[in-house]
Amino acid sequence: MRAPASVGMRLEEIDTPALLVDLESFEKNLKTLGDSLRGHDVRVRAHAKTHKCPEIARRQVAAGAIGVCCQKVSEAEAMVEGGIEDVLVSNEVVGVPKLGRLGALSTRARLGVCVDNRDNLRQLEASGAKLDVYVELDIGMRRCGVAPGEPALALAREIARSRTLRFAGLQAYHGRAQHLRSMAERRAAIQAACDQVVLTKALLEKAKIPCPIVTGAGSGSFMFEVETGAWNEIQPGSYVFMDADYARNEWAAPLPRFEHSLFVLATVMSRPAPDRAIVDAGLKASSVDSGMPGVWEKPGLVYAAASDEHGRVDIAPGVAAPALGEKLLLVPGHCDPTVNLYDWYVCVRQGVVEALWPITARGASL
Amino acid sequence: MRAPASVGMRLEEIDTPALLVDLESFEKNLKTLGDSLRGHDVRVRAHAKTHKCPEIARRQVAAGAIGVCCQKVSEAEAMVEGGIEDVLVSNEVVGVPKLGRLGALSTRARLGVCVDNRDNLRQLEASGAKLDVYVELDIGMRRCGVAPGEPALALAREIARSRTLRFAGLQAYHGRAQHLRSMAERRAAIQAACDQVVLTKALLEKAKIPCPIVTGAGSGSFMFEVETGAWNEIQPGSYVFMDADYARNEWAAPLPRFEHSLFVLATVMSRPAPDRAIVDAGLKASSVDSGMPGVWEKPGLVYAAASDEHGRVDIAPGVAAPALGEKLLLVPGHCDPTVNLYDWYVCVRQGVVEALWPITARGASL
């Protein structure tokens, strides 16, 4: 798919819809994460499911991350292909085709995977791949994962007995906690999760099964996990971009405030009435699962409804209306599924295109 | 992006998530549309924004369509590239880069475009392209379009005066009517729209401006438009696939009932509790803007929540629970943005892969 811009173009010249990265804010976000972790004994394994782009992964590693995590084997392939040497598939991998690819990939990079099921563990072992295996705990998300405590211990025992697999630790991510709006709610959810992690670690220790890593945490909660001391690896993804949904959270110390660095650039393609403008970015340009995109720095303009290829922007009375052909920056409601709609990041610094980064794992869902 | 299957595979062997077309239902839908139009003087211009695939467009043309419509210039490029000779961009095209491409494309195929704004019309004319131009009417959708009556006439007059552009008729699509649930509501909405079309046609006739085509109508309403006699071209898109949202409509004569032919094949990747299964298809595999996907022919299994890469399927008490690794067919909530997530259709007949069709306009949003 052709890129909507070329290097050197000004913002106004970029074809739309386009997915923009504001490099100054992006770089600031990388630095902010590092700054907030200073003095804590924790490593960063940035989540590549957010950006799907080795160019970004390499910058995360340069900023101190030990590698990335992915949700899919095909994403992991794109990351290894792009030079990332340590990848955790922070998810279960089921089925012969995927296990085969995972095994092949494990000969090219350090590779980890999660399990929450004994049958799946046997399939993994039968594949012959040499892998770091993490037991995924359900610490409150009610998605995948085994119950903390004895069920987790039982699975860890089996991994520890394996000749090809290595028990690497616990995957303990609380997705549901990330968007609890108040700091107090998020802190409480992570504290409850921490109790489950600590309980499980104690059982492992008693069973003399070393548990090198407890990994988890997202952009909305990671400092809570860090401060408990129970996690020694974190997996933030959205922090590089921020999105409108994360911005609705309460942000205060110990969590740093990240900046919006991801935008959808849209063009006003119709001005049918004084109270509305229609832009060329709809459902196929910005995912609305977590709400409509916001209109950036244009008070009185509200992106109110999306259809497949159109967005309706309502114009408040008395507000300067955008002209036909005018470009608007939108802040996506949810960054991850929005990124997955695009083949290119158009990277902008002070209004000029500095680079185009291919989103090589766009659509990598296998 | 690699395909999740190869020809000859059985359904159970397809890697997931995968976008499936059931060829028998798909072919039946093509035939059903033709059957329901028999005896009516109306031509079909199938909407390619739904499928984004020349393989499908060619089958629509073989089944009687005179060509396709698209929403984007880049989609139109993919269709012309794929051998379609008559394409209407049923949308406004704004900005120099897009108008340049539209002009270049118009030398390779019959090409139409819509306008709803005098400034945009002047840009179009300045581009020098030879195009069929349709005046888009707002007949109740409150998206793009000029008001019916005098404003539409004024725009048509300007087109008729142009040396390069040809006034081809009216674009009169009522998107909002498509999902009004009852037949009576949809019929009433289209009747009101019809009054506006008839009024505008009468003004054009009085002004001696020939109006060869009135085009519009979608899968949820087209027989209402056809029965009014005011439209002589229809633009159904979703009829080839149907989706869960369209299935929630009331369907009765004169509208035919189309079959679900589009599915997302998903794998149960975690069975953490008796009352839930987790599948490997989430927001990046099925768009949820119009509701969650449905689980096909598995009563008691409800796809209840989607996160980026996971779907939670709730299992009703007493219902046979799906096993780890079992494959489920999901009916997407909304076909168009779901298709836009995939690079391949896996075409299946009686449970065996017969073909792989590339979705060449996937991501074509410019």
Strand and helix layout:
The structure is a homodimer of 366-residue chains.
Chain A: E1 18-22, H1 23-37, E2 43-47, H2 54-62, E3 67-70, H3 73-81, E4 86-92, H4 96-105, E5 110-115, H5 118-126, E6 131-136, H6 150-161, E7 165-171, H7 183-206, E8 213-216, H8 222-228, E9 233-234, H9 244-247, E10 262-273, E11 276-279, E12 294-295, E13 301-306, E14 311-315, E15 327-331, H10 335-339, E16 344-349, E17 352-358
Parallel strand pairs in A: 1-16, 2-3, 2-9, 3-4, 4-5, 5-6, 6-7, 7-8, 8-9
Antiparallel strand pairs in A: 1-10, 10-11, 10-15, 11-14, 12-15, 13-14, 16-17
Entry keywords:
homodimer; 366 residues; alpha/beta; Lyase, Ornithine Decarboxylase, Chain A, domain 1; TIM Barrel; 2 domains; eight-stranded parallel β-barrel; 17 strands; 25% strand; globular
Describe the protein in words.
The structure is a homodimer of 366-residue chains. The first copy, chain A, is globular and about 70 Å long. The mean pLDDT of chain A is 97. Chain A has helices spanning 23-37, 54-62, 73-81, 96-105, 118-126, 150-161, 183-206, 222-228, 244-247, 335-339, and strands at residues 18-22, 43-47, 67-70, 86-92, 110-115, 131-136, 165-171, 213-216, 233-234, 262-273, 276-279, 294-295, 301-306, 311-315, 327-331, 344-349, 352-358. The longest helix of chain A has 24 residues, at 183-206. In chain A, helix 6 links the parallel strand 6 and strand 7 (165-171). In chain A, the strands form two sheets. In chain A, strands 1, 10, 11, 12, 13, 14, 15, 16 and 17 form a nine-stranded mixed sheet that branches. Chain A has two domains: 11-19 and 259-358, Beta Barrel (Lyase, Ornithine Decarboxylase, Chain A, domain 1), CATH 2.40.37.20; 40-240, TIM Barrel, CATH 3.20.20. Chain A contains ten helices and 17 strands. Chain A is α/β, with parallel strands linked by helices and 366 residues long. Chains A and B meet through strand 10 of A and strand 10 of B.
